[in-house]
Write a structure and sequence with these properties.
The protein contains 11 helices and 14 strands. By secondary structure, it is of the alpha/beta class. The chain is elongated.
Length: 311
């Protein structure tokens, strides 16, 4: 449904997207993942014909986006970082307005608005001013405007950003439900989210492709690896360098917090190496507070592929 072929985009001298290629299958929920500033929003704007690539091309259902932007926009519904709401409009009034902009016919307009209100559980808010709604419901109306014209492709950019836990769970269920009728491209920097929602993932960092594949295929490629989570009172650069010299350690990522150093070690081994590491921590007098070992989930996969490609 979507084919991205070697697209590049500059903002002045800044390279935002660097020779990026990936594909999205029809009927899939495809996770587009990467840290903040990775180039996700820029890429999505190029896919939606809102921003031209400096080089390369994007094909939507075999149609070149740059050559046929008007045709492409009919096929796509999009929610970027902030829902494009008119805060002085009521919910139904707003969706009818968007549907008319999206050239939904008069005879189909009420049916489409009724459908999205019911699908997103917004019936009780159709006569409320959008400006008076919670952030979660504003976000739902943002999704509603993206699907009111029944597009083939729905692009959602960080749709759970800033939501409370209950609203995040509801948004996840909503996105999973869109798969029945649309191809969904869903961006996030929260990798656990994509693990719960997506069929396939594309991971980028610094505008470059890290990996693009089905989640289970990536997980299987890491089936012989484990992640060791360590918390210590202190950590020096020399101690970290010595830790990374262990033959089973592929790499280590460190985050310093107020209560200590949080170390994620990707181990190229299914063996439990915690006893060996704990001896090392005692010898280095690092003040070992906690250590667990687990199989990699998508967050650990992201950590592994990004760090590997930064070498």
């Amino acid at each position: 449904m979507i084919e991205v072929d070697q697209i590049t985009r500059f903002y002045g001298d800044h390279l935002a997207v660097d020779n990026l290629s990936f594909k999205v299958k029809k009927g899939a929920v495809h996770g587009f993942l990467g840290p903040n500033g990775a180039g996700k929003t820029t890429t999505m704007k190029m896919l939606a014909a809102l921003l031209p690539p400096d080089s390369g091309r994007v094909l939507i259902d075999s149609v070149d986006v740059s050559e046929n932007p008007r045709e492409i926009k009919k096929k796509i519904g999009i929610l970027l970082e902030t829902p494009p709401l008119f805060m002085d409009m009521e919910g139904r009034e707003y969706l009818e307005y968007v549907a008319r902009l999206r050239t939904v016919s008069k005879k189909d307009l009420k049916e489409r608005v009724d459908f999205v209100l019911e699908k997103l559980g917004l019936q009780n808010f159709e006569n409320r001013l959008l400006g008076n709604l919670s952030k979660g419901y504003k976000q739902k109306f943002g999704v509603a405007q993206a699907i009111v014209h029944n597009p083939e492709i729905v692009i959602l950019d960080e749709p759970t950003s800033g939501l409370d836990p209950q609203a995040v769970m509801e948004m996840r269920e909503l996105i999973r439900g869109l798969k029945d009728e649309h191809t969904v491209l869903f961006s996030s920097h929260l990798l656990r989210e994509a693990d719960l929602i997506c069929d396939d993932v594309t991971i980028i960092a610094n505008g470059k492709l890290m990996v693009s594949a089905p989640i289970n295929e990536i997980q299987n490629s890491l089936s012989e690896k484990t992640v060791i989570n360590i918390v210590t009172k202190s950590l020096s650069e020399d101690s970290l360098a010595l830790l990374q010299k262990y033959p089973f350690v592929e790499n280590a990522l460190v985050e310093q917090k107020s209560d200590g150093f949080y170390i994620k070690v990707l181990a190229d081994s299914l063996v439990d190496n915690r006893e060996e590491i704990s001896r090392f921590m005692v010898e280095q007098k690092l003040g070992l507070l906690e250590m667990t070992q687990e199989k990699p989930d998508l967050e650990k996969i992201f950590f592994e592929v990004v760090k590997r490609n930064e070498r």
